[in-house]
Write a structure and sequence with these properties.
Layout (H helix, E strand, L loop, with lengths): L4 E3 L9 H7 L8 E3 L9 H4 L4 H12 L5 H11 L12 E4 L2 E5 L9 H5 L2 H11 L5 E7 L3 H10 L5 E8 L5 H8 L6 E7 L2 H12 L2 H9 L2 E4 L6 H20 L9 E6 L4 H11 L4 E8 L4 H8 L1 E3 L20 H8 L4 H14 L1 E3 L2 H5 L4 E5 L2 H15 L5 H17 L5 E5 L7 H8 L8 H12 L5 H6 L8 E4 L3 H8 L3
Parallel strand pairs: 4-14, 5-6, 5-8, 6-7, 7-15, 9-10, 9-14, 10-13
Antiparallel strand pairs: 1-2, 3-4, 11-12
Helix pairs in contact: 1-6, 3-4, 3-11, 4-6, 11-12, 17-18, 17-19
């Protein structure tokens, strides 16, 4: 059955999957959502027999219904190949009673690789399907990981250019070095004096500039997005939850049909929304455990029903979650409002104007699947240290936030269901925070020395992504004020 995509903010005509992927964001500022969530049509016991690529096809064919089997299989084959350093693509490691789903074995050692390795292929295929003659300009804001994964995916892809904005002082040194050393004639990286929310707001504003869109079209360009606001990034994220269930089944850790919990460190809400969609498809998931850092806007929302970004922005050791406007939450709000675009638009307008909105009691009742909590900076460090001391396993700061919150959930509820925890980044990406958590004596070392020490104590080879940037020259040194972002775009495109 064909799936069409609606805007969360209007009753405009629904579009095909390939059109939604091309546009990234609806013209009315809304996000594209499927007109229904398809049921998983593979019996769960069959999932145990499938590899990652096969699972990806079974999930994505249900959402991307205007792609032919050949087109979709070709995109999957190109995406999930030797770029990943393990044949399973996403291994599951059991430590201290938790199943850590390692989503960081791709080219840039963060979970964003899972979707951003396939998005360029989905996008260029979509362009051909829709007879697009313009060059596609990918415009993206990043809190650290999306930027490098998108740059890596789109570098030197014919018919595309990519511009990434990041908060100049709001990412880890390794994250920044990964971005500013990026090769590719079609790539542009710009630091802004501001935080991630400023970058994301600026990107959305540029997307909504009709005059700029007309100027670009006249010069043969059009915008699209690699952020998780693009449905072409969200759909591939559903895959790894389905795959994880199959792998637990294959290893005899669960029985077919047995419910599991999923814990996700959450910033922009895309990763946990993908787990929500997996549950809506019929995957036996019980609770969706939403883990926040000290920027606990989502924790407060799940407890009160009020979303309020009017608070101090905290720079933490888990920078990819330093977010006060969780863009993908809009999709969930739309769904729990009964797919009511008018109600959603009213709430999003309140967020834009006053920085806050409150959902109705009936909407709040539909959040029963979610549990929200947060970890302080001290708790995050303690979680890294205690897990290492207990098991020898080293996790990054974002994964530690999720691990800490899951422990709080387990203590509160006494729920002992098997739990998959999304391990979203390699500890090598946040070496300073990780190593200082394990032992204060490491604080005097420089970043690459810390990477070597981390390799030594964990028994894990330093990832290629770290070795590549150790001596790489800086190729991007453009920094601008947050109100100069559009100018940076027009200069890069020579408009």
């Amino acid at each position: 059955m064909e799936i069409r995509y609606n805007s969360t903010r209007s009753k405009s005509a629904p579009v095909k999957a390939s059109e939604a992927i091309l546009r990234g964001l609806s013209e009315d500022g809304g996000l594209f959502v499927p007109d229904h969530v398809p049921a998983l049509d593979v019996p769960v016991d069959k999932l145990a027999e499938m590899d990652y690529q096969q699972t990806a096809y079974e999930v994505m064919k249900l959402f991307l219904t205007d792609f032919t089997d050949e087109e979709l299989k070709d995109c999957i084959a190109r995406a999930y190949d030797e770029k990943f350093d393990t044949e399973e693509i996403v291994p599951i490691v059991e430590k201290d009673g938790v199943y850590y789903l390692e989503l960081f074995h791709g080219a840039t050692i963060a979970f964003k690789d899972m979707a951003l390795s396939i998005l360029p292929h989905l996008l260029t295929t979509s362009a051909k399907k829709n007879h697009v003659k313009n060059e596609i300009v990918i415009l993206t804001a990043t809190s650290g990981d999306t930027g490098k994964a998108a740059l890596s995916g789109f570098a030197d892809v014919a018919g595309t250019r990519i511009i990434v904005f990041y908060p100049k002082n709001g990412v880890s040194p390794i994250q920044e070095k990964q971005m500013i050393t990026q090769k590719g004639k079609n790539t542009c990286v710009v630091g802004i004096y501001g935080n991630f929310d400023d970058a994301q707001t600026g990107v959305k504003k540029i997307f909504g500039d009709r005059k700029l869109a007309e100027e670009m079209d006249a010069k043969g360009f059009q915008f699209s997005s690699a952020n998780s606001i693009n449905i072409g990034r969200l759909v591939p994220q559903i895959v790894y939850y389905v795959y994880a269930y199959g792998q637990l089944l294959k290893e005899g850790k669960i029985k077919a049909g047995e419910k599991i919990n999923v814990t996700v460190p959450t910033g922009n809400f895309g990763n946990i929304l993908a787990a929500y969609y997996a549950k809506q498809m019929g995957l036996p998931i019980d609770r969706l455990i939403c883990a926040s850092n000290e920027n606990k806007v989502l924790y407060d929302f799940f407890h009160t029903g009020t979303y309020d970004r009017n608070r101090e922005f905290v720079l933490t050791s888990s920078p990819s979650m330093d977010i006060l406007i969780s863009s993908n939450l809009e999709r969930l709000i739309y769904h729990i409002a009964g797919n009511d675009a008018d109600k959603n638009r009213e709430l999003m307008s309140a967020l834009t104007q006053g920085g806050t909105y409150t959902i109705t009691e009936s909407m709040k009742e539909k959040l029963a699947d979610f549990y929200g909590n947060y970890a302080s900076e001290d708790e995050t460090a303690e979680t890294i240290r205690s897990l290492y001391e207990k098991t020898g396993y080293v996790i990054d700061t974002h994964t530690a936030v999720a691990s800490c919150v899951y422990e709080k959930y387990r203590n509160e509820t006494k729920d002992t269901k098997p739990t998959v925890l999304a391990s979203t980044a390699s500890p090598f990406k946040f070496t300073r925070s990780v190593m200082e958590a394990i032992g204060g004596e490491y604080g005097q070392m420089e970043d690459f020395e810390l990477a070597d020490k981390l390799s030594e104590i964990s028994g894990v080879t330093t990832p290629k992504a770290i070795e590549e940037i150790r001596t790489a020259p800086v190729l991007h040194n453009h920094v601008c004020e947050k109100d100069e972002m559009e100018q940076a775009v027009t200069e890069f495109l020579s408009l």
